[in-house]
């Protein structure tokens, strides 16, 4: 697939080194339909291409992506401003199973940049397009200044049960301090009806899953979004092969039951 040319319509600096952009195609027709949990390959001219998850579903023919500087290509993308152009391939991959949400006790668990792929879920909940029996959002970050979408999280907390925690904070931080597994472990969970959407650093997800399993949550009720070195995005190059799966086309969202043998092998 040849990259289509997109234009940056808006750009918000979340905190130093991390921005959120809304992009739309320069040609007529609008962006291709996408679902929460999918990703695009974003191409910075002269630098290269990287996979970036959807961090918002606009419904107006545009895409939203949150970009953190992690290398040459993301640095080049982060330097782009409103009106600048970039290449886009996608959307690719399997997203969150929104068809399973209705009537369930939904636990949304995010760590750091992992809030980005989960943000469309919360937006859908706020818009009333997904109707779980109840919702709990757990969001952990290193510092208060590094929490994504801070104003939105505040708005969400007025309608949903939101627990925020950070590793380090100055005086005045109203949330909790410590790792996300502590409030998750203290949460009341209906193990017969729970559904978990989880995204964050792999070590964080590993410990969260241990907590959930210890509480009795079924392996088939836990879904997580994985990261691997994706290049082609269509399962041909083999860079993201993980056990029998290709993260780019079989994921990035997986049911824990289906990947447990490989997820439990560290450094695989």
Describe the secondary-structure layout.
Elements: E1 4-15, E2 18-25, E3 39-44, E4 48-57, E5 63-68, H1 72-78, E6 85-92, E7 105-111, H2 115-127, E8 134-141, H3 150-156, E9 161-166, E10 176-177, H4 181-186, E11 194-199, H5 202-215, E12 222-225, E13 241-242, E14 245-246, H6 247-250, E15 253-255, H7 256-263
Parallel strand pairs: 7-8, 7-11, 8-9, 9-10, 11-12
Antiparallel strand pairs: 1-2, 1-6, 2-5, 3-4, 3-6, 4-5, 12-15, 13-14
The coarse silhouette is globular
Overall mean pLDDT? 93
The CATH superfamily of the largest domain appears as Nucleotide-binding domain of ferredoxin-NADP reductase (FNR) module
- Nearest-angstrom radius of gyration? 18 Å
The top level CATH class name of the largest domain: Alpha Beta
- How would you name the oligomeric state of the polypeptide chains in this document? single chain
Proportion of residues in extended strands: 25-35%
How would you write the strand order of the largest sheet?
10-9-8-7-11-12-15
Q: What's the tally of helices?
A: 7
- What kind of sheet is the major sheet? 7 strands, mixed
Quickly give the structural class: alpha/beta
CATH topology term of the largest domain: Rossmann fold
Low-confidence stretches: none
Number of strands: 15
CATH architecture descriptor of the largest domain: 3-Layer(aba) Sandwich
Task: Walk me through what this model shows.
- The longest helix is centred in the C-terminal third of the chain and has 14 residues, at 202-215.
- With 268 residues, the protein is of the alpha/beta class.
- The relative contact order is 0.14.
- Helix 2 (115-127) links the parallel strand 7 and strand 8 (134-141).
- The model has no long low-confidence stretch (mean pLDDT 93).
- The chain has helices at residues 72-78, 115-127, 150-156, 181-186, 202-215, 247-250, 256-263, and strands at residues 4-15, 18-25, 39-44, 48-57, 63-68, 85-92, 105-111, 134-141, 161-166, 176-177, 194-199, 222-225, 241-242, 245-246, 253-255.
- The strands form three sheets. The protein has a seven-stranded mixed β-sheet, with helices on both faces. It has a six-stranded antiparallel barrel with strand order 1-2-5-4-3-6. Strands 13-14 form a two-stranded antiparallel sheet.
- The protein folds into two domains: 4-92, Elongation Factor Tu (Ef-tu), domain 3, CATH 2.40.30; 98-263, Rossmann fold (3-Layer(aba) Sandwich).
- GO terms for molecular function: 2 iron, 2 sulfur cluster binding; flavin adenine dinucleotide binding; metal ion binding; oxidoreductase activity.
- It comes from Microbulbifer donghaiensis.
- Keywords: 2Fe-2S, Iron, Iron-sulfur, Metal-binding.
- Its cofactor is [2Fe-2S] cluster.
- It holds the Pfam family NAD_binding_1.
